[in-house]
Design goal:
This protein starts with a helix and ends with a strand. The chain contains 4 helices and 10 strands. It has 279 residues and is mainly beta. The chain has helices at 3-14, 39-45, 161-172, 189-192; strands at 104-113, 116-127, 134-144, 148-156, 203-208, 211-223, 226-235, 240-246, 255-260, 267-277. Helices cover 13% and strands 34% of the residues.
Amino acid sequence: MNRRLSCFIMVILLVAPFFSGCISGGDGEADSDGDGWSDEQESIAGTDKNNPDTDGDGVWDPKDPNPLVPQGTTTPPPGPTTTPSSTQQPSKTWALYDFNIGQQFTYSVDWEGEDFSQTGTFSIHILNSLTNEFRVRYFGSYEGAMSGSFDTSFDTNEENFYEDFVSSITTSNIMAMPMFIFTVLAPWWGPYFSEYSLYVGNTWSVAVDGVTATFEITGSCSHAGLTGVKGEWNYSIDNMNIQTCISPSVPLALATSYSFGTGSSAMVYSSELTDYSAG
């Protein structure tokens, strides 16, 4: 297997813990505990290949949002640590996935690693559905270490959008997963950003796996003609840094930059909204 293909597959496997049951071992891969993740995937995720429920909370690893920490032990996010001045009123909170029929988003994406490069574009179009709140059509292409294209639709609603998108991607377009995980599907959006007032200067923190992650709204930003606020998350494990541009009036991020690791081994993912239509 060439180095670029290995790096591409590594990106997909590294995000396995974020997705409930997204990745299962393929034919011929050892799965010592029979939980659906191969021994290799267990090693990358840090779980026990001989125990289907590593953290002992009653939820098997592939179905557990955080298979290394028992459910219910993560400290809930505290309130904001700063108060807006009389001239700086807090903006709206972020209505994540609160789509309107006709909205369309187009992103350019790029992810880089040692001897690894991948670029692509993808679009999301919110359509009428005969069976649910709306239909999501997502389509695009990618090239570099791997090349391909995709055009898929599924019916869903605001409440189930995350789970239904995960199911669609892992069924139909798993090699395109890195194009979505840090923009459309990032699992930290809900509890760590969308519940807070988005005004410049607001900060808060949250305990993740016993390590404190800090959040800060640092300034303004603009993409595809939309203005938002820039948020930054620093997390000491794996030297993780996330920067994002969010507009309270748009239910997806306008831009993201995600990096982990250091030096030549660092992986960097970025996306930017290049075109937007309110429908």
